[in-house]
């Protein structure tokens, strides 16, 4: 029976670091089921869901701390279960671009929470436009059958106007 482990690694970015970590996973006999990698400032971040036999998971739990120390990484591991997909009736992508201000992301995540949507992804970045620091954010969410897409679209448009968003979009996709 396959077991699952979430592995998170953070450290200074340098060429080959992802390769070294994925080589470790493979050499332990594990498979990478899902992963995300990003750079934040000069820091590299990687989150992986790995699967393997009981012995393979023990190998990774044993070998990763030494590898992390060698690579000067902070790592966290946590056993988990396989992700079971929930049948949502719709998916949606909420996007907005506006002058950056403290609390904008928090207000949108509160909106998502208030409307009982399940957030599955968040991407945001800053850029400069006409000497103004701008925020672009994208939220991927799942909606169940009780959600009224038209009401969510209207409420999101109202929120974006209140936040002073120059540009916003909500795209609802049927599953």
Automatic annotation (TrEMBL):
Record InterPro entries: ACT-like_dom_sf (IPR045865), ACT_dom (IPR002912), GcvR (IPR016867), UPF0237/GcvR_regulator (IPR050990)
GO biological process: regulation of DNA-templated transcription
Subcellular location: Cytoplasm
Keyword field: Cytoplasm, Repressor, Transcription
GO cellular component: cytoplasm
Acetylation in keyword set: no
Main location: cytoplasm
Ranges of residues in domain ACT: 93-175
Protein name: Glycine cleavage system transcriptional repressor
Species: Agarivorans albus MKT 106
